[in-house]
């Protein structure tokens, strides 16, 4: 961004073609991350793991209403996206611990900014 446009948000710094081609929409990393993290459980898991690593059952107990199947699916997706790491400890029985990767930790600041904005504007947003 040039020195004369420092107050322009990066999302607005570039003009999009009109109409926006489907291929451009599909290739957009912003839309991709919103699609991946915009489900009911992913952000909650990321926020919980932002505090500290958790074992599977700790996460399951910490999230009311999530099924074991959905938690497993969410953790696998976040692991595949390199946001969560899974460590198996050689105990009997084996214990599994989940934590954020450095990439996952780097997501906490922008997520916090979005959460702060949402809380500040909650009354203005329509339900």
Task: Describe the structure using short key phrases.
WH_DNA-bd_sf, elongated, mainly alpha, transcription regulation, DNA-binding, Arc Repressor Mutant, subunit A, 127 residues, 11% strand
Notes on the protein architecture:
The chain has helices at residues 22-27, 29-37, 42-51, 56-62, 68-80, 102-106, 108-120; strands at residues 54-55, 84-89, 95-100. It is mostly helical and 127 residues long. The chain has a single domain, classed as Orthogonal Bundle (Arc Repressor Mutant, subunit A). Strands 1-3-2 form a three-stranded antiparallel sheet.
SSE order and pairing:
Blueprint: H1 22-27, H2 29-37, H3 42-51, E1 54-55, H4 56-62, H5 68-80, E2 84-89, E3 95-100, H6 102-106, H7 108-120
Antiparallel strand pairs: 1-3, 2-3
Domain HTH hxlR-type: 28-126
InterPro entries: HTH_HxlR (IPR002577), WH-like_DNA-bd_sf (IPR036388), WH_DNA-bd_sf (IPR036390)
Pfam family, one: HxlR
How large, in whole angstroms, is the Cα Rg? 18 Å
By CATH, the superfamily comes out as Winged helix-like DNA-binding domain superfamily/Winged helix DNA-binding domain
Q: What share of the residues lie within helices?
A: 40-55%
CATH level 1 name? Mainly Alpha
Number of domains: 1
Strand order, largest beta sheet: 1-3-2
Distance between the termini: 36 Å
**CATH architectural label:** Orthogonal Bundle
Q: How much is the average pLDDT?
A: 90
Which range does the strand content fall in? 5-15%
């Amino acid at each position: 961004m040039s020195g004369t446009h420092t107050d322009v948000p990066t999302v607005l710094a570039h003009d999009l073609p009109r109409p926006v081609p489907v291929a451009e929409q599909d290739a957009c990393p912003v839309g991709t991350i919103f699609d991946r993290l915009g489900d009911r459980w992913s952000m909650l898991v990321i926020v919980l793991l932002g505090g500290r690593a958790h074992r599977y059952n700790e996460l399951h107990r910490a999230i009311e209403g999530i099924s074991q199947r959905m938690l497993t699916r969410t953790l696998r997706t976040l692991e595949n996206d390199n946001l969560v790491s899974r460590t198996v400890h050689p105990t009997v029985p084996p214990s599994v611990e989940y934590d954020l990767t450095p990439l996952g930790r780097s997501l906490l600041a922008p997520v916090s900014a979005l959460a702060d904005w949402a809380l500040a504007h909650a009354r203005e947003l329509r339900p």
